[in-house]
Amino acid sequence: MNTTAWRASLRIARREAWRNRGRSALIIALIGFPVLVLAVADIAYRTWQLSPQEKLTRTIGQADAIVRWNGGTGIKQDPRSLYDLTFSAPGNGTTNAEPPAPPTATLVADLPPGTRAIQWKQSTGGVDSARGRALVQLNGLDYADPMTRGLVKPVAGHAPRTTSEITLTRTLAGNLGLHLGDTVRTVRPNGTFRLVGVVADPSKRDATAAYVLPAALPAGNSGDLSVENRWLVDSPGALTWSDVRALNKVGYVAVSRQVYLHAPPKSQVSYTAQGPRGISPKSAATGILVGGMALLEIVLLAGPAFAVTARRQRRDLALLAAVGGRREDLRNVVLAKGVVLGLAGGLLSAVAAVGLAAIGIAAVSPHVDPMPGHFDVRPLELLALTGVSLIAALAAAVFPALGAARTDVVAALAGRRGILRTRKRVPLVGVLVAGAGVLVALGGLGASANGLVILIGVALTEVGLIVCLPALLGLVSRAGRWLPLSPRIALRDAGRNRSSAAPAIAAVMAAVIGCVAALIGVASAHDQDRRSYQPILPVNQGYVGPLVGHDITADRVIAALRSTLPGSRAVPLTVPGGGCTDGNTCDQTTINPAGGTNYTGRIPAVLVDDGSSVETLMQARVPAAVDALRAGRAVVTDPSTVDNGTVSLDISDGTENSDRTARVPAVVVHSRSAFVQVVLPPSQLTRLHVKSHVEAVYVDTAHRPTTEERQAADAALGHLDPYLDLDVETGFHSSRLMTMLIMVVAAAVIAIGATMIATALSNVDSRPDLTTLAAVGAAPRTRRVLSMSRAGVIATLGTVLGAAAGFVPSVAWLHAQSFRIPLVGSDGSFAPVRLVVPWLPLTAVVVAVPIAAMLVAGLFSRSRLPSERAAD
What we know:
This protein has 872 residues and is α+β, with helices and mostly antiparallel strands. 49% of the residues lie in helices and 15% in strands. The strands form five sheets. Strands 17, 18, 19, 20, 21, 22 and 23 form a seven-stranded mixed sheet that branches. The longest helix is centred in the middle third of the chain and has 38 residues, at 327-364.
């Protein structure tokens, strides 16, 4: 087609778009909205994807480099990481053998003359307040130094000036209820400070950290306390890769600003971190395929609008053909409208995305943890998205354009609609393509199956069904003869106007396929998670321990718990064995039910009790258990382990060939708690010549402890011993159910939206039919019922086909997972995945979505029939 003809086609398209502004705005919205979403997401991603300079500022401030003492010799490091490294000699740099960190002066001596360095120590400890204890990162850093600008953002007060002053991040101070001037107590290391400042972390909004001067923290590791020594370095010149390698030779790891921004040649780097960098080809292919399916959904949503536009231009196109226009001219007039509307939708969306992204980032950033960087708009990427909009519009206009090229000039000028037939080979091709998709998704599965293969199969299945839809519409429309007037007209219109009905049904079907597949996958994964979950305690119950190795008694722990957990009952967990009397002497005697135990919870398999704690452990009143223990008999909860009134126990002293078996008189007591297996009275331990010791404390809470109660309990335990805390079993939790609800809502919105678009366009296209109905005396409500019937036809066909096809990817994925996930066993491995159909959400999609679409159509449709003449 020559340039002059193209300009004429574009002028016609622009004129038609402006004359039918409502329909044009709808097409622009359909095509432009996804582009708008992608453009906003692109700007947000780029804004949160920090530039190298921003990353360095948040990591090393204004320094030229950051240096970490690692110890050892022969270090080989990744040029851009403080922690990705290896050693040329085995055993160097390990934590246990790490030599003490040298003073700052030693580091400066190893750097170019004129270099200045400030120390930065890091440790993990706790901060106490009246509300409880919080685990925090303790930083020994003088952030008043200009070299640290960008690492910390002062909010209130000032930086620590003495070793008795501390500053906290805003989140930490708020959580603990601390204000300037309050006294702050830290544990690991222990210390008391005065709060003089509040700061914010530029990287994480919810960071919980504390800052003191470096001298306030120990110089190195002490017991369980681990202190990492760092330095920020300011050098007269750039710190080169040669300087970094020289530091590696004497035990330092360094990240230089110069090296980070200008990577050294690969020939000079002897070690780089393992793992993929960038996007793998498989991920890229998957992303392209998913993007293509999303683009297909957009095309299907916009297709009906172009189809209706092409039909309303039939007379104009016929006149164009009558005066000498070729088929190519008729086709390109419709394609030109795709060009006009696609460019309009892309450009308007790109411009609107900049403003919406600015507003959205400002509104969202205060509520998310990672802090954004500078507002980053990439014009070339927005231009590429505009190209996507153009491609989507052209793709949506292709089939209406091909239909326009085959316009019957005589029938169009006479006002006849003609007869639409689908070639017999078209549905056959669709069936073959859909069948091939099912075979790809299901037939090629095995241990090496992957999601990309399944996705390709799903895409082929979906395309095949779309190809079959026109023929299916023609077949279904024949059922209208047995229906009332409005449904009969709706089915007839769907069969007659397949170019607009088929894309709308396909859009609904595509949305439902993804929704049903995801619903089944999420439900199956939720079922597997639930069956795999193994609680370590009864739900809402607590555990403190082990007490072995802590210079603290169970009575003091119990008193601390009772004072902070109202209504709770805490009892000691006494187990066989003498425990450890000092650091080197331990009684390793153990007693287990004969044959071993598969139990992996916190409560030991065999407990020792005189009857005072057994009811708390079993969470019920069990007088029989109390009486049995006081009478010197064991209490057993599993009847299968008792034979002739005795239970068999395996006893081991922890040495080779020391195992022995003993039988103890026992009573079977049924318990609600499956965590208590065998309880022995102290008299039986005496008979077996076995000692006992208190291993931990069990807490039977009156209710699930709140966050404040747990903080208070941890603080009370921390005052007794810094390493004790309360562990509470909260039971199985999953966010997958909310995911299912979100998917149902998303699918419903897309399906109802596609149905409404197709219904509205069909109502516009069938105005002559409405006029005829008015002329023959049809009731006013007929128009509303007809609109509801059209919506029902489209939504019902789309949801039923989508629900059936949605089982293909679900079954394929679950079958592939069965090759990767082991069977459940006594070692607590995952339960086998199995197909779980969430019938309630699935029914909501298949039944409720068509009903909702019909109700919405009826709500927004007018009842009054038009009174114009039936034909012009």
